[in-house]
Design brief:
This protein is 55% helix and 6% strand. The chain is mostly helical.
Length: 161
C-alpha cells in the first residue's frame, strides 16, 4: 500500500453541508487566519484603491470567506470570520476600514501577470536594441503596453466591504 492521499475538499464539503462540526470549525479558523494575513498585507501596502485577493483557493472558498453559507457563524460584529480577522488590528482598524477588499473570480491571474511582464520585457529589449542602432522611437512605448494589457484583464471582483 502506497502513501495515503489527502483531499482537502472533503473538509470543505463536510463544512458546507453541515455534516461535521469539526470541519466547519477548521474552515472557520482557516478563514480567520486568511483574513488576518490579508489585513497585515493591507497594513503593509495601504492599498486604498482596493486589496484584490486572487487564486484558486480563494475562489473555492468564496462562500466561506464572504460568510454566505448558513454553517458560517457570524460573530458579534455581524461579519464573516475573514472580515472580522481582517479588521482586528487594534488602533489601526480605522485605517483598514478605508481599504476596500475584493475577491477576484479569475483563477488565472498568475498567468496573466506573467504575460504582461513578458510583453514589457520584450518591448524594453526591443527599445534598447533600436536605440543602440540609432533608431529613436522604434516600437510601442512600455506605457502603451501596460495600459492595453491591464485593460484586457477583464477582472471580475466581488466587493467584500
Amino acid at each position: 500500500e502506497g502513501p495515503r492521499t489527502f483531499d482537502p475538499s472533503v473538509i470543505t464539503q463536510a463544512a458546507q453541508l453541515g455534516d461535521c462540526e469539526l470541519s466547519a470549525r477548521a474552515v472557520e479558523m482557516w478563514c480567520g487566519a486568511y483574513g488576518s494575513e490579508a489585513g497585515v498585507v493591507a497594513l503593509k501596502y495601504m492599498p486604498f484603491g482596493g486589496l484584490y485577493i486572487t487564486g484558486g483557493v480563494t475562489n473555492k472558498m468564496r462562500d466561506f470567506i464572504t460568510g454566505q453559507l448558513p454553517t458560517n457563524k457570524k460573530h458579534n460584529s455581524g461579519m464573516s470570520p475573514f472580515m472580522e480577522s481582517f479588521f482586528d488590528k487594534g488602533r489601526v482598524t480605522t485605517m483598514l476600514m478605508r481599504v476596500p477588499v475584493f475577491l477576484v473570480r479569475g483563477e488565472d491571474m498568475g498567468e496573466r501577470g506573467v504575460m504582461i511582464k513578458a510583453q514589457r520585457q520584450y518591448l524594453e529589449s526591443k527599445r534598447k536594441r533600436a536605440s543602440a542602432f540609432g533608431a529613436p522611437g522604434f516600437g510601442a512605448s512600455p506605457k502603451a503596453v501596460t495600459q492595453t494589457s491591464v485593460e484586457s484583464l477583464d477582472v471580475v471582483a466581488d466587493d467584500l466591504v
